[in-house]
Amino acid sequence: MVTGSRSSDRHPPIDPSLIDVELNAIKIYALVAAVSLESPNEYDLEHGPDTDWVKRIQNYSSLLYIKVKSDEMLKHLPVIGPSLTTEQAYEAVGDLDQYIDYVNLHLYQGRRCPGANGTGPHGYGSITWFLNYLAQHQSSSGKHIQATEAGYHNYVPVGGISDEAEGKYVARMFAEFFRRGIVRTYKYELVDEEGKQGKEGTFGLLRSNISEKPAFRAVKNLITILSDKGSNFAPDSSNYKFDGSVNDIREILFQKRNGDFYLMVWLEVPSWDLNASIDLYPPPQQVLLTLLNNHNISSATLYAFNNSADVNVSVLPINNNQMTLNVTDKINILKLSNHTNSIPHVFLSR
């Protein structure tokens, strides 16, 4: 839930005296759905005539945190810092460590792939740049980060990418951000805004007529494969190694409560040509996966995302704790199991 509501679209200054009104509305109408509370959105861009906007967002953020943590109904909710849009703004607002539970980033990367190195000597626009040059200003202690906006749009004439490339990048965005320590990422946005021209009307996971983009299917299928609702548990560790063509390979290992391991692996390479504005199709790279402590793994099921974000399911043979795998620029998830009675997955496709 983003705080800092305004009385009009002309961006009047945020009013700290309205925090209580907003929090009461959240408690009445949205408490069951809320997972966090957030300081105002991009106030460095949206402060209108507020010439003392830095002081105002500092005061607002501190007061919001104090009020939330003193409220019995809200104090369990983490408070995310304010989102800002430039390094200069983060530096001006400064350290909010004592008044936030999470740092806030709007982590957009233009048309580049999620793990791109960025541009310029400091890697502007890369994940590393966001971590080193923005996040550190908001939290001197290095608190964990939530990316409350991220993603791509499909208006190709002005910095957009194709639906197909977005489907690949969005799935990899969630994976790569998580791999880099960003604990929660929000894709902007759910549905294309009908009537909006240019890029602002094409950020959705769904089109304005609610038809599915590949990015929607990618997210849906990720949830289908990896969902494991229940109480917390202590996962086991598992050692493995890749041999062969391992350049640009990224991986994350998960485990579910039934003991199955889920190894997510992909190539972090461009799927969109920045100059020609066309889709790229990098060749797969074959690797040999060796299980070093195999937990009696007896079966390997591969969930391979294709160019449309649909999922192809196949069984990989295991020989002497080894298997051959083609890694692509799409997400691949390898389920490693020591039993054969796993519940099958039902996938969303076109």
Task: Describe what this molecule looks like in 3D.
The structure is a single chain. This protein is α/β, with parallel strands linked by helices and about 350 residues long. The protein folds into two domains: about 15-225, Alpha-Beta Barrel (TIM Barrel), CATH 3.20.20.80; about 240-335, Golgi alpha-mannosidase II (Immunoglobulin-like, Sandwich). About 20% of the residues lie in helices and about 20% in strands. It is built from six helices and 13 strands. Strands 7-8-13-10-11 form a five-stranded antiparallel β-sheet. The chain has a three-stranded parallel β-sheet with strand order 3-4-5. A hairpin with a 5-residue loop joins strand 7 (about 250-255) and strand 8 (about 260-265). Helix 3 (about 85-95) runs parallel beside helix 4 and helix 5 packs parallel to helix 6. The longest helix is centred in the N-terminal third of the chain and has 17 residues, at about 55-70. The radius of gyration is 22 Å and the shape is globular. The chain starts with 18 loop residues before the first helix and ends in a 13-residue tail after the last strand.
